[in-house]
Amino acid sequence: MLCASHAVAQSEPSALIDQQHCMFCHTNDAPLLAPSFQQIASRYRDDPQAQAMLEHKLRAGGRAHWGDMAMPMPAERGGALSPEDAHVLVEWVLRH
Question: Where are the domains of the chain?
Fold first, then answer.
């Protein structure tokens, strides 16, 4: 049986994460300039509307809403993000 962190690491969309510069602001397990992927997953994994909302936020950008972390999600990171790529990234984050 694989531990959850190993399963997440194995299915990490590394090229997409690098292309979109996700790790400039996020880490897997600790807040940096933005919440960690684990924090995002904890907040949203049981919300049935979260997948669509987060995919939209990745593609369009959006204001910050994490208390003292005032970094908004930029609309342009590493280039245009397709709906399919946004879906892959959000699914990956919510598995943390």
Answer: 30-96
Pick out the residues of the known binding site: 22, 26, 73
CATH architecture of 30-96: Orthogonal Bundle (1.10)
| 3 state DSSP class of 53 | helix
Q: What is this structure's pTM?
A: 0.82
Pair 57, 21: CB distance under 8 Å = no
Residues 15, 41: Cα–Cα separation, whole Å: 21
Res. 7 pLDDT band, cuts 50 70 90: very low
3-state SS, residue 73:
strand
Round to whole Å and give the CA distance between 72 and 63: 5
**Would you list which residues are annotated within the binding site for heme c?**
22, 26, 73
